[in-house]
Amino acid sequence: MPWVSLVARLGLAAMWLYYSVPKLGALDANVGAVKAFQILPSSLNHAFGYAQPFVEMAFGLLLILGIGTRLTAALSALLLLAYIGGIISLGARGIAINCGCGGIASQAAKGHTRYLLDVLRDVGYLVPAVWLLWKPTSPLSLDAVLLPEDDEPAPPPPRAAASRPQPRTQAKKNSTTQSPNRTRTRNAR
Amino acid sequence: MSQANREGKRAARERLVVERERQRQRDRRRRQFTVIGAVIGVIIVAVGVGLGVALSNKSTTYTFAAPSGAIVDPYSDSSGKAEAVAYGQASAPVTMTVYEDMRCPYCQMLETQAGSMYQQYVTSGKLRVLYHFVTLIDSNDGGSGSLEGGNAVACAQQTGGSTKFIDYHNTLYTNQPSETTDSFSSTATLISLAKKVNGLDTSAFETCVKNGTYKGLVQQNWTDMQKLFSSPGTPTVLLNGSQVQSSTLFSATSGTEAANVSGLKSAIDTAIAKATKSSTTSPAASSTATTTAAGSATTTTTGTATSTTTK
């Protein structure tokens, strides 16, 4: 399971970097893409178009480092949901643009709009994000170093533990700092 | 006694363990907050960088300046500024107002396919074209090719006169990059294209292109166009002030769009007939008419236009 999380984490990171890096080279074009969606008030298009690629890149870097994976995955999922909503609203309003996803939006002939595919693609990107929400712990991450056993509640207090058999069987996975404590508890008995 | 002592030791040990566990959890929570803080911090920095770049890139407003030969368009310039680059004789019976963008693919379609046709009317003294260069594509797609390109053709008008202006104007359309490739934003590209027009690439021209002398003119045109039309599109063509329908400018035949050369031609013919109230409207009939500077321009540009492949 942690390896699946690793793949999900790096995959999601790669997705963000893949889409953000070209946008960083064409920020004005990205503003154009944002405008083409005709969702934001015109005064915000500029700011959003400029900030968005940087935020996406930040998500990518945070995921590669594996820091705050669950939070970053949650924010990634929210952003993806916003994009999906945006694309659906384009289809609903009958605005024909070449989706603009990943950078350049230009008015396209009706046949070129493929909103369904774009929505499905973004839903596909949601999969690793949701997986990471559920199981954020993965090897080769800063989280594993800073916060071992991230996806578990705090272990029961030792007093209770002493009177009952250890309820937590999977606690050993990553818990290098925890094990010595626990052995000492047992020794003390 | 020993029993109590053992109990005491055990209690102390357990207290120590509990304390240690609490400490561990406190540490963990602290690290958790650090991580959350780091994530939020990184994202705030990312937004900040983006907004910082946005502010520093915010388009500047340039001072209005008009090249020699620019006039106030009687049909569209509400600002009263000489913002239209005039091509043709003032005595021509028909004035064709053209709003165009040097980056716009439909303008390219019109200019490369119908350019030689309407420019022949200019040669024969029947038509005067008032060019308004705007920044529609810059505004839609981002970039600055419309602004730089519009400035460059105005520079050609100022430093090279009418002949070189129209020749350079046509050259830029022939060599227009695809809409999303903003190569006209590079003054070096614009200057190297000027070398295709004999005698245009002077130091005065290069200085003008690099300094963006007429960027204010292009911005003024775009501002005024947005006031004039509720949804401005390029090209927009008026004949003596009445707008030419887009079906007259372009024909859509089974998906392949092209300039409607015959449609525009007959619209011009009609306008000339109406203005002169005479029946001799064929440009061939009047091709022997006096040739101005515009005349020699047309001969050079015809070659450029016909060699262009359809987009």
Secondary structure elements and pairings:
The complex is a heterodimer of chains A (189) and B (311).
Chain A: H1 2-24, H2 27-37, H3 42-65, H4 69-93, H5 115-134, H6 142-146, H7 158-163, H8 178-188
Helix pairs in contact in A: 1-3, 1-5, 2-3, 3-4, 4-5
Chain B: H1 2-57, E1 70-71, E2 84-87, E3 94-100, H2 105-123, E4 127-133, H3 136-141, H4 145-174, H5 187-194, H6 203-211, H7 215-228, E5 236-239, E6 242-243, H8 246-249, E7 250-253, E8 256-259, H9 261-276, H10 293-306
Parallel strand pairs in B: 3-4
Antiparallel strand pairs in B: 1-2, 2-4, 3-5, 5-6, 7-8
Helix pairs in contact in B: 2-9, 2-10, 4-5, 4-6, 4-7, 4-10, 5-6
Characterization of the model:
The complex is a heterodimer of chains A (189) and B (311). Chain A has eight helices and no strands. Chain A is an all-alpha fold and 189 residues long. Chain A is elongated, with a radius of gyration of 22 Å. A six-stranded mixed β-sheet of chain B has the order 1-2-4-3-5-6, with helices on both faces. Chain B has a two-stranded antiparallel sheet with strand order 7-8. In chain B, a hairpin with a 2-residue loop joins strand 5 (236-239) and strand 6. Residues 279-311 of chain B have low confidence and may be disordered. Classes of the chains: A mainly alpha (189), B alpha+beta (311). Chains A and B meet through helix 2, helix 3, helix 4, helix 6 and helix 7 of A and helix 1 and helix 3 of B.
